[in-house]
Specification:
- With 92 residues, the chain is mostly helical.
- Helix content is 64%, strand content 0%.
Length: 92
């Protein structure tokens, strides 16, 4: 089951990257986040499709040591919602 979820996650992530025309996100000084905004956006879409919590998907697909506060900061989720609106997933 996890292999199926991982392949589905990779397909969603690749289609997001090609649809938005983004190769990589902006590089900032300091340590990069464990989960990028595009990855988090793909996790939200996959969570919607599979009816699995985003945090559970992130732990199983990306890194089991991820803490929930890394993913759900207010500014971070606002960026992700803007990305989802750009993809027209939220139906704005």
């Amino acid at each position: 089951m996890e292999n199926y979820l991982y392949s589905l996650y990779q397909m969603v992530l690749k289609s997001l990257i090609s649809y938005l025309g983004v190769d990589q996100e902006k590089k900032k000084a300091g340590r990069p986040p464990k989960v990028s905004d595009l990855q988090l956006c793909a996790l939200f879409i996959l969570s919607y499709i599979t009816n699995t919590p985003v945090f559970t998907l992130a732990k199983s697909l990306i890194d089991p040591n991820i803490k929930s506060y890394h993913l759900f900061r207010k500014t971070r989720t606002q960026k992700v919602y803007r990305l989802l609106e750009d993809v027209n997933f939220l139906g704005s």
